[in-house]
Amino acid sequence: MGCGNTTSTGTKDGVTEKARVTFVLGGPGCGKGTQCSLMVERDDFVHLSAGDLLREEQATDSKDSKLIKDYIKEGKIVPVEITCNLILKAMQKKGMSKKFLIDGFPRNEDNLQGWNKVMNKHANVVQVVFFELSEDIMLERIMKRAETSGRADDNKEAAEKRFNTFKNETMKVIKHFEGKKMVHKVDATGGIEDVYENLKDGLIV
Ligand code: UDP
Ligand code: MG
């Protein structure tokens, strides 16, 4: 203490403060975004969706936009350097002393390693929220969302690919945090308020 950590931007009483991060995970269409909006309104979190940040970046003519577009369509995981940089920039813009929900990240072990390398000095991960839902219901919700989302990956074929990526890669990340007793598992069946009630019971706010 006192020697001035220059890597973070939040300070409190002269002591450098790290961002407090909650990772929000769960299969495609499980309701992460919806529940994150409620946590923003009711529990004072700042919400950053990795998927939304990638889609924003893809919509610009940056050097990564073509790659991002191809990965998203295939339900594959974008290289962590790209995603992590977008997340860090977005966090810094909001101010590092906030409580962040990072939604849809880390999606595989490479994402997690990349995060640790770049972000350990900026942020503390306090918990991982895992929304659990059957594939049947996730697919139903995706097909419903497809009517309005305009997303290239909201269709049955891309959804199947995303389910596979979730099972084969993201579940390992969840298991990793389960080993550290950091996972808050939430039953995501049922209506929005029912799920929020399940979520609130045990959530670190
Ligand atoms: N994606 C990625 N890395 C991330 C987050 C998203 O590569 O950290 C890509 C991936 O191709 C994924 C797509 O973006 O399938 C959509 O992600 P999003 O989180 O928006 O989908 P959701 O799970 O919310 O339906
Ligand atoms: Mg989402």
TrEMBL record:
One of its GO terms (molecular function) is phosphotransferase activity, phosphate group as acceptor. It holds the Pfam family ADK. GO terms for biological process: 'de novo' pyrimidine nucleobase biosynthetic process; nucleoside monophosphate metabolic process; pyrimidine nucleotide biosynthetic process. SUPFAM superfamilies: P-loop containing nucleoside triphosphate hydrolases. The keyword Metal-binding does not apply. Signal peptide: none annotated. It catalyses: UMP + ATP = UDP + ADP. InterPro entries: Adenylat/UMP-CMP_kin (IPR000850), Adenylat_kinase_CS (IPR033690), P-loop_NTPase (IPR027417), UMP_CMP_kinase (IPR006266). It comes from the Eukaryota. Keywords: ATP-binding, Cytoplasm, Kinase, Nucleotide-binding, Nucleus, Pyrimidine biosynthesis, Transferase. Belongs to the adenylate kinase family. PANTHER family: NUCLEOTIDE KINASE. NCBIfam families: UMP_CMP_kin_fam (TIGR01359). This is Uncharacterized protein. It comes from Euplotes crassus.
